Amino acid sequence: MKRKIFPILMIVLTTFLTYLPYFKNTFGIDTSTMMLDSHEMLEGYLSQGRFGIVWIFNLFIHHYDNALVPFLVVPLLALAAVYLFYLIRHFDEKSRPFSAMIFAIFFVNNPVVYAQLYFKLQALEITLGLLFVLSASHICLTEKIRRPVKIMLSTAFLSLSILIYQSFAFFIFSLFLFWLLILPRKRKIIFQNFLPSLMIAGLIYLLTYLLYAMKINYSSYGSQTYLMWNKFASLGHLHQALMLVMLFGVLIYLGFIFITIRRAKHNQPLEMLLIILLFLSLFSFNVAFGTSTKTPRIYFGTFSAVVIGLLYYWNKPKFFGILAIASMIFTFSLSFHANQAYQNDLKLTNEVADQISQHQAKTVVFIGNLQEENLVNEVKTYSRGVSTPLNLVGRNSKLVLLHPLLKR
């Protein structure tokens, strides 16, 4: 009983300690928009293809409460870590409780996961998506359910996760390789159930995307921000060369996949091939979009699946225990500094709003340098009963005070 309860208590405790600064009620401009006009924000999510977020909000949430988000997200994160611990212990007969506990802790307590949850507006749905993927894994790995039923159920969970956030597709693919690497006795079941479920889930997302296209206009934010393949001719020579290297790498990667499938059919060793495939899957987003942009939010679960898979294969639990502690401390520090940044933003916003009210300035412009379609968004702020439009140009913008009285 101690061997079962102690690891679970440690996983829950470490997760709550790591995300302690996350409980502070901080919010950014998108959250402000949701609080003022949820319809506008949800329309934005639909235009970006995040249908699942909108469905969950309309069915279960209705009214967004930013202060409540951490009290829902952190327990769900702890539950996801405990769930991974259970899956490893249940399906890997050679696993040890301490090892499984360490990897489960690292799975959610790392800065890349926090980079996604930093935006509390979608944190709850993202965490639910994580649990959906783990549930699909559980269904695919079990032998107590008939194969057609397994594929149907796991497809439903995987579809929901991708509909919440498209980049879950990259995470699911890495997790597929993760299970193949650490569960050699389950490889046939994984190939038969997990891979078809992922492919069908992708088709379901594509069908949903096409159906919604009949009644909404999709934003080009994602393509303008990340997708470089459609801009190949206008890019610099260095970037073009990097993209050609990516294409060559894709061909090599496909070759490794072909060899892996062939060796699997003949029950030959796959470990080294799976290690290579799992590690390279970390860059699947960059290859798909032809970009070298560092996108920690997009890596999210992909990073966890890749790192945990590689560390689990080279099983040195005491050494990796130190790594997990270092990850927790770094994540805690990162969230603490994020809170300080939020406080500075809030202070600046209040000062600007006070000046606007006092001097009746017409416009304050935040100037940035991102996408054409995001050049101007209007958001209302309220100070002393006065409603004043703020023109926001791009994201991560610098503040430029145009009114003469606000030059300071």
TrEMBL record:
Pfam families: Glucos_trans_II (PF14264)
UniProt keywords, alphabetically: Membrane, Transmembrane, Transmembrane helix
InterPro entries: Glucos_trans_II
Stretches that traverse the bilayer: 6-23, 67-86, 98-117, 162-182, 194-212, 241-261, 273-291, 298-314, 320-338
Keyword DNA-binding: no
Protein name per its UniProtKB record: Glycosyltransferase RgtA/B/C/D-like domain-containing protein
Protein species of origin: Lactococcus protaetiae
Signal peptide residues on this chain, from the entry's feature table: none
